[in-house]
Design a protein that fits this description.
alpha/beta, about 20% strand, about 450 residues, eight-stranded parallel β-sheet, 14 helices, seven-stranded mixed β-sheet
């Protein structure tokens, strides 16, 4: 075998499982094959002097809108934004048109992503009342990230609201199930508060913390009874975090950069319906509780919940305005700014965006920089001062709630399986994304 490498990443600080190491990385056939002094041994060299080389960031919650809603986003523009933001892999949600509820719909998405996705990808199958009995087989298909359940109506038509139906879902298959926890019954009870029109500030009043807590408690009780692992998406409230801290045996926890950064009422004052998402941006008491949960290890992973809508759609009067905002491209710089400000360590950021996703979903060959693993890297300059702007956003929606946000820290290169796909804010090469592989589906 040749001693030369396809790619050498040189002179950077490499964040390995044991901590930061000053070493070069040798890549061959898309995998990490060597560490050490490797100058001059690569067919291609990426000079990372003065920068940090992190395991590739994996965003385990995005909505890329294809098929059916491509005017907001598609798989090419969504993954373009991902790699421009330093993200090397994405898990995409099923509430497209049609919803991803069948083997055919999943295969269609995988086919659409080939030669168009800039990063690696996988797709959730949506649980619906008419496909529950097939979920055990569907979750094992190539390209499937697992099953997604909406316990409360959000965007799209997927909804499994009743305990009996949720219990049936939990009995199908064995992989961890991702769940949007808002209680549909309480949402309907409180719809009177906003149905005839209201300020967007009423969004967290209508979809209050009790709405989220009830669904989370119901889910965990059902999961424990079924002995099925669940993942509670975008947790937003102090009450949920306190409850979940006592139920980590079956439930893992996600929160988002938006909920860690924005707070009511200021976000609604400044952004209007651009701050509208489900579950809502809440007040500082809840934001502080989320940070406490990050510090104490309750939170397992960060997901962006990238869910774009056009400015025209967002301009509709509340509550006709749709919920959701862009996020995949801003996840890394926003969170690196929190690292710079002392809100979390870089080690914790890596755990939340690389090791955590791999641990929760049993991802094969990703989540750390180690021999034999995929050569996925997020290269960052921790000292870079930049300002996020709408004009930088690749999404078809063309806007971000972080327009004007001053960052300390920026992704300078994105490497997917040994291929440099972004360098200094420019796309490189071709869209080479492939389906993410999962250990659970090898059994």
């Amino acid at each position: 075998m040749s001693d030369r490498f396809d790619l050498v990443l040189s002179k950077g600080t490499v964040w390995m499982p044991g901590g930061p190491v000053e070493t070069d990385i040798g890549v061959r056939d898309g995998r990490v094959v060597a560490f050490g002094a490797l100058a001059g041994q690569g067919e291609q060299t990426l000079d990372c002097q003065g920068q940090d080389i992190l395991p590739g960031v994996i965003d385990t919650q995005v909505h890329f809108r294809e098929p059916g809603l491509e005017h907001k986003e598609d798989l090419e523009t969504g993954t373009r934004g991902a790699v421009l933001g330093g993200v090397t892999g994405i898990f995409e949600m099923p509430n497209t048109k049609p919803g991803t509820t069948t083997a055919e719909a999943l295969a269609d998405k995988v086919q659409r992503a080939k030669n168009r996705a800039w990063c690696d990808f996988s797709f959730f199958i949506g649980a619906a009342t008419d496909n529950i009995d097939t979920l055990g087989g569907l979750e094992r298909l190539p390209g499937c990230a697992g099953i997604k359940v909406f316990m409360g109506s959000s965007t799209g038509s997927l909804l499994v609201a009743e305990d009996g139906e949720v219990a049936r879902v939990l009995q199908q298959g064995y992989r961890r199930i991702a769940v949007h926890c808002e209680d549909e019954y309480r949402l309907k009870e409180r719809w009177e508060l906003v149905k005839d029109g209201a300020p967007v500030h009423m969004h967290p009043v209508w979809r209050d913390e009790e709405t989220a807590l009830r669904a989370t408690q119901r889910l965990v009780r059902l999961a424990e009874a079924a002995r099925r692992r669940v993942h509670v998406l975008h947790v937003t409230s102090a009450e949920e975090m306190a409850y979940l801290a006592d139920h980590k045996d079956w439930a893992t926890v996600e929160t988002t950069p938006q909920h860690l950064t924005l707070a009511a009422p200021d976000a609604y004052d400044r952004l209007g319906s651009k701050a509208q998402m489900n579950p809502p941006i809440r007040d500082e008491r809840h934001r502080d509780a989320l940070w406490k949960a990050v510090a104490e290890g309750v939170v397992d992973v960060l997901g962006s919940d990238h869910a774009p809508h056009t400015l025209d759609e967002k301009a509709k009067p509340y509550p006709q305005s749709p919920s959701g905002m862009t996020g995949v491209q801003t996840l890394v710089p926003v969170m690196l700014t929190h690292v710079a400000n002392g809100k979390l360590s870089l080690e914790r950021f890596i755990d939340l965006t690389s090791a955590g996703p791999a641990r929760i979903y049993n991802i094969q060959g990703k989540g750390r920089i180690a021999l034999g693993y995929d050569a996925d890297f997020t290269v960052i300059d921790r000292k870079a001062s930049r300002t996020i702007s709408d004009s930088w956003i690749a999404s078809r929606a063309g806007w971000t709630p972080f327009d004007g946000f001053k960052t300390t820290g920026w992704p300078t290169a994105t490497v997917v399986r040994g291929q440099i796909v972004m360098r200094d804010d420019e796309l490189q090469g071709q869209a080479i994304g492939e389906p993410v592989r999962f250990l659970d589906t090898l059994l």
